[in-house]
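Researcher: Checking consistency across runs. Here is Na+/H+ antiporter NhaC family protein again:
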Amino acid sequence: MSNKKGNITALAPLFIFVLLFIGTGIISGDFSNMPLNVAVIIASAIALAMNRKEKLADKIDIFTKGAGHPNIMLMAVIFVLAGAFSQTAKGMGAVDATVNLGLSLIPSNLLMVGLFIVGCFISISMGTSMGTVAALAPIGIGIAEQTGIPLALAMGTVIGGAIFGDNLSMISDTTIAAVRTQKTKMSDKFKANFWIVLPGALVTAIILWIVTSGEQIDALGDYSYQFVKILPYLTVLIAAILGVNVLIVLTGGTIFAGLIGLFDGSYTLASFIQAVSQGIINMEDIAIVAILIGGIIAVIQHNGGIQWLLHAVTSKIKTKKGAEFAIAGLVSTTDIATANNTISIIITGPLAKNIADEYQIDARKSASILDIFAGGWQGIVPYGGQMLAASGLAAISPVSIIPYSFYPIALLIFGIIAILIGFPRFKQK
C-alpha cells in the first residue's frame, strides 16, 4: 500500500452528505425529511467544486467515469430489475398469499415466534424490510391488542423478521450492493451469510417464546391463499441459491409472476406492463443515488480522500481479524449516521474492498460483514425507516421498540463472534 497519507479534506462531500441527514433530522425531529437524491446532488456539487487547481471539465470527466463504472452500472440494472420483479409479484397477489400462508400456520400459543418466522419468510421473498413492516405491522398491532403483549414487543418482532430476510434475500438492494461492491456471487454470499443469521434467528425465537409464554388468542382469522402465487418467490430464491445469473433470475421471475397473473386474471397484458414499469420507477431513485455516489467516490479518490481513510483505518490494523473489524466498524458508523443500510454499503463498499484485498479477506466474507453490520444497526437506530414506519403505525415512540430489537442485536453479536472465531462452514477459495 502507498505510504502517502492522502487528504482528509477530500472527504468533505461525504461528511456533508452525512451531516445533511443528521442536521435535518435533529432540527426537524424527523430523520426522513432529507431526501436521498437531494442530499447526494448537494454532495456531488461540493465534490466538483473542490480542488480549484483542476479544470471543471476534468473533474466532471473523473466524476462521470466513476459514476459509469461497469460495477456501478450493473448494480443499477439489478436494482431496477429487482423493482420490476417485486412490483409484478406484488400486483398478482404474491405478497398477500405469502403473508396469509404464514399466518395460517401460526400456533395460537406461539404468536410472537410465529410472527417473527412469517416476517423472515416474507422479507426473504420480497427483498424489502420496509415492505415487510408495512404488511405485518398491522397484524402485530392486532395481536398485541388482543393479548397482554406490549405493542413495542410486537413491533420489534416485526422489524426483526424484516431485517432477517433483507439481509439474505437475493432481490434485496442491500444484498445486491454488498455483492456488487465486493465482486462476489450472490449464491456464495448467501451461503456464507446464512450460518451467521441462522443462530441469531434461533436465539431470537427462543427469547420471544420465553417472554410471551402463556399469551395466546383463540384465532388469528381466516387467511386464505393460493400456493401458486407464492411460486415466483420460491423460484427466484432457489435459482439464485443454485448460482443462476442474477439478471436471468430477476428477468425470469418477473415473466413467471406476470404469466401467473395473466392466467388467473390478476393482470391484463396492459396492467402487467404497467406493473413492470412501476417497479422500475420505484427503484430508479436508489439506482440514481448509487450512480451519483459512484461519481462522488471517484472524485474523493482522485483528491486523496480514500487514501487518507485507508491509511487512518489500516494504520491501526495488525491482523486479518483487525481488518474485518475495521470493515464492520466503517459500515456500522455509516449506517448509524445515514440510517440507510443500502447507502451505507454503497458508500463503504469500495473502501471495504480495498481493505479486503490488502489483507486477503475472501470477498464472500467482506460482503457478508457489510450486510450483517449494516442490517443489524438498521434494526436498532430509532430514526431508521423501519423503526419510524412501525412506530408510526402503532402510535408509539421508536425508542420504546429498541429494548425489543432482539434479532438485530443478535445479528450484531453473532457477526462479532463470526469475525473472532471464523465464519461457520466457511472455506477460503
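Researcher: Does this match what you'd expect to see?
Model: One thing to look at in this run: Residues 219 and 282 are 36 Å apart (CA to CA).
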